[in-house]
Design goal:
It is built from 29 helices and 12 strands. It is of the alpha/beta class. The chain has a 5-stranded mixed beta sheet. Strands 8, 9, 10, 11 and 12 form a 5-stranded mixed beta sheet that branches. Helix 28 links the parallel strand 10 (469-472) and strand 11. The radius of gyration is 24 Å and the shape is globular. The relative contact order is 0.09. InterPro entries: 4Fe4S_Fe-S-bd (IPR017896), 4Fe4S_Fe_S_CS (IPR017900), Cys_rich_dom (IPR004017), Helical_ferredxn (IPR009051). Residues 26-57, 78-101 form the 4Fe-4S ferredoxin-type domain. This is (Fe-S)-binding protein. Keywords: 4Fe-4S, Iron, Iron-sulfur, Metal-binding, Repeat.
Length: 509
């Protein structure tokens, strides 16, 4: 191990444990700590290790630190707290781990313990945390008021004045950069604009409850509206429970476990009352916690069953469309039609590929074939009782994975299948699309230097795609990609867009 990790492990003085050490010992899942085999498969997957080469900045190193505290070998100090906070929480280590260590859960347990005892926060940090986690995020009405205040700032001429006189220079540079790329905010969320119930178009598949989110409903209201319309087109009735609230992800990632649990309970109650078949998320960061409500509340007998019910029904909107919607049916039918000449002839002469007892039936369509069909314009067929997509002009698109969508929700193929189904659109795989962009919730605000380094490396790969559109499936990633495009002078050549918005604009009708 690197010297920095050795020095941390040797940092205990005397035999007395701090209150933080005691809390960590009772909070950390020791079985998960011991599951780590120290194999090092996580190291190349970890953004902070790749940037620094320091063992303590890796999942293996951080687990070693946690276990050292749990075993009484070291007493956690400021250096320990710093290492836990340097982690992006992207969870790229989890798919790489042969022992299936739940690193994300260990990190949240460690941060929750730290926040109970930390003395490192300045008064304004404490105030900001209390305001955000207790005063704003749990309250939808207050979030809409915040959206209204932003809307006034953006549309009244105040923004132009602030920029003109240079007031943003009083703030850290990264704050000024984020202010420039903020989308237009809204006081009225998706329910306030279009209502809470929306019937399916055509043959009904089932009922979906849309998780609208807190940030999504203030800064990306149009994306929420487009999600409803996509689901309707694909055969889903959509219900938007009005009593839902923030998912609790930012709370969980920032050491506010108690707050996350309370928010989870309210959401479970709201969606159970709505009687939905599925719960759709269009934000990877939210969805990652929603699918783990069962773990979050596993030790609460009153809520454990409801949490399991909720987690089992939660899917990202792309996976819901691909696996259950009538969205893919139209593209498959168009593919089958275009390949009719190559279809096998089914008769009484015995079984042949693609043939069954009911006569000629098209077999599964491969991704390569579907992509070829889309390039030929086949995917733009509007018939067949399903919805498909077509671009009016030939465009090149690429995709940055949401870390939590890929690593926690394990959904990376569905977005790509949807993109490949768009007629007249060329999908270009982004090198290291599975690597974090540096957003990581509010990481780009709390750790701007590391986030900036990671983003700069990401944009090197993005530039090489020469794409017109950089798509992603998470609001934080989308803002980070917009920031990267601006920083690297690519604004006139490329646009960062949410996958839902890109597809909605190209619905074939």
């Amino acid at each position: 191990m690197a010297n920095s990790l050795v020095s941390l492990l040797e940092s205990k003085e005397g035999g007395k444990c701090s209150e933080l050490a005691t809390t960590l010992k009772s909070t950390l899942d020791y079985d998960q700590l011991t599951n780590c085999m120290r194999c090092g498969f996580c190291l190349p997957a970890c953004p902070t290790f790749r940037e620094t080469g320091i063992e303590a900045e890796s999942p293996r190193g951080r687990i070693a630190l946690m276990k050292a505290v749990a075993d009484g070998i070291m007493d956690p100090d400021y250096a320990f707290e710093t290492q836990m906070n340097h982690c992006l929480g992207c969870r790229a280590c989890e798919p790489a781990c042969p022992a299936d260590v739940k690193y994300g859960q260990l990190l949240e347990q460690a941060r929750d313990s730290i926040e109970q005892h930390t003395t490192s926060h300045r008064w304004w940090v404490k105030l900001a945390r209390k305001t955000a986690f207790e005063g704003m995020f749990p309250h939808q009405k207050r979030m809409r008021l915040l959206g209204g205040a932003l809307q006034i700032y953006q549309q009244s001429g105040l923004r132009k004045l602030v920029r003109g006189v240079g007031l943003m220079k009083l703030f850290p540079a990264h704050m000024g950069q984020m202010e420039r790329i903020l989308p237009e905010a809204s006081y009225r969320g998706v329910v306030e604009q279009i209502g809470s119930r929306h019937p399916a178009k055509g043959e009904r598949v089932g009922t979906v409850g849309l998780f609208r989110g807190c940030i999504m409903d203030v800064l990306f209201t149009e994306t929420n509206k487009h999600t409803v319309e996509l689901l309707n087109e694909a055969g889903f009735d959509v219900v938007i429970p009005e009593t839902q609230n923030c998912c609790g992800a930012l709370h969980a990632h920032s050491g506010e476990q108690a707050g996350a649990k309370e928010l989870a309970k309210r959401n479970i109650k709201a969606f159970q009352s709505a009687g939905v078949d599925w719960i759709a998320s269009n934000a990877g960061g939210c969805g990652a916690l929603l699918v783990e409500y069962d773990h979050l509340l596993h030790d609460d007998p009153q809520w454990a069953e409801g949490a399991a019910w909720f987690a089992k029904r939660t899917l990202d909107v792309s996976k819901l469309l691909v696996e259950h919607g009538r969205l893919q049916a139209a593209a498959t039918q168009a593919m089958a039609t275009s390949k009719a000449a190559a279809a096998p002839s089914c008769g009484s002469g015995g079984a042949k590929p693609g043939c069954g007892s009911g006569g000629a039936k098209p077999g599964p369509v491969s991704e390569a074939a579907a992509e070829t069909a889309a390039a030929d314009g086949c995917g733009g067929s509007c018939g067949g009782g399903g919805v498909s997509f077509a671009s009016a002009d030939k465009v090149r698109i690429t995709y940055q994975d949401s870390c939590h969508l890929r690593n926690a929700m394990r959904s990376s193929e569905a977005p790509r299948k949807l993109m490949r189904s768009v007629a007249n659109a060329e999908f270009i795989e982004l090198r290291e699309a599975d690597r974090c962009c540096g957003s990581a919730g509010i990481y780009n605000l709390t750790q701007p230097d590391m986030a900036g380094q990671i983003l700069d490396h990401k944009m090197e790969h993005v530039q090489r795609t020469d794409a017109h559109y950089l798509l992603t499936s998470n609001p934080g990633c989308l803002l980070q990609m917009k920031l990267g495009i601006e920083k690297h002078g690519m604004g006139g050549k490329m646009e960062a867009v949410h996958l839902v918005d890109f597809l909605h604009e190209r619905i074939c009708k």
